[in-house]
Design a protein that fits this description.
Length: 297
């Protein structure tokens, strides 16, 4: 089986978020779940994508962390189609179908840039009580009372565009940088709320040379991912959160900067179309091939 290591959501090697990509031989079925989990653990990236070709422009992709399968992964999808393009499996400037556990998603490949549909956005619930708010922020190494005093008036909400995360606002980039989670407690909290993890963000983008929507950090220790440098699904969810909370409008193009705390700066772009009845979110980026080879399993 052919494999690639791809830095996704970046144009620079060692930037963005690395993903493993395994392309199954023509006509081959997926290995057992156990083998795919072990492969992901061996590659040691937050997610590894396994790709099965179904037709000329159709693929089925399954996504595995070192601990378990997840329904969808944005950066591994970007990495997958970058690897398929690099390896000559697909052509540039075309539309493809990606069958995932989150649904069937269109993928547009244009001039080496990959734009992917997110699953239909859903607001699952929110954390509004003082006790719940203080618990969340304390686990993340902050104080909710302090954040409120600094002007944070948005409340955390559980949003999914394929995977559920808690969107957690903080007052400034300094507060974002100061986050230091209690990872065992965050794993238990994530399990209780039935989310992948916490997507922390700030609207403080002062000094950015390019117009930016948010600076963000993502934590998912329940899935053996203490922090991720770029998360497509989470920023798709944040796009919808922004729409629900008034800092993103229908038709907007959004720009999210992530990975700064990990010295892996990433840029994730999104686009939202919405009206009274429907909402469609796309997330995009590019990637860089770091390595390729054969996996013997």
């Amino acid at each position: 089986m052919k494999f690639y290591i791809v830095d996704a959501f970046t144009e620079t090697t060692f930037g963005g978020n690395p993903a493993g990509v395994v392309i199954l031989p023509e006509g081959a079925d997926f290995p057992s779940d156990e083998v795919m989990v072990k492969t992901a653990a061996e590659l040691r990236y937050s997610e590894t994508a396994f790709i099965k070709r179904l037709g000329e422009k159709e693929f089925q992709i399954r996504y595995f962390t070192p601990a378990a399968e997840v329904d969808l992964c944005g950066h591994a999808t970007i990495g997958s189609f970058k690897a398929l393009l690099y390896g000559g499996y697909i052509e540039d400037n075309a539309v493809y179908m990606n069958h995932t556990l989150s649904g069937d998603l269109n993928i547009v490949v244009k001039d080496g840039f990959i734009l992917m549909d997110m699953a239909t956005p859903v607001k699952i619930s929110e954390i509004a009580c003082e006790e719940g708010l203080e618990e969340l922020y304390t686990i993340m190494g902050l104080s909710y009372a302090d954040q409120k005093a600094k002007g944070v008036n948005l409340i955390p909400q559980m949003i999914s565009t394929g995977l559920p995360d808690i969107m957690m606002p903080v007052a400034s980039r300094a507060d974002l940088a100061a986050i230091a989670p209690d990872f065992p407690a965050l794993s238990k909290l994530s399990e209780r709320y039935e989310v992948v993890g916490v997507h922390a963000f700030t609207l403080d983008c002062e000094g950015d040379e390019v117009k930016t929507t948010c600076h963000v950090r993502n934590f998912a220790p329940l899935y053996d991912i203490d922090e991720e440098a770029a998360t497509g699904t989470s920023n798709g969810a944040l796009t919808y959160y922004g729409y629900l909370n008034g800092f993103v409008a229908a038709g907007d193009d959004c720009r999210f900067v992530q990975g700064e705390a990990m010295d892996r700066p990433s840029v994730i772009l999104s686009h939202i179309e919405a009206d009274a009845e429907t909402c469609k979110i796309q997330v995009g980026g590019t990637g860089v091939i770091l390595a390729e080879g054969e996996i013997h399993i």
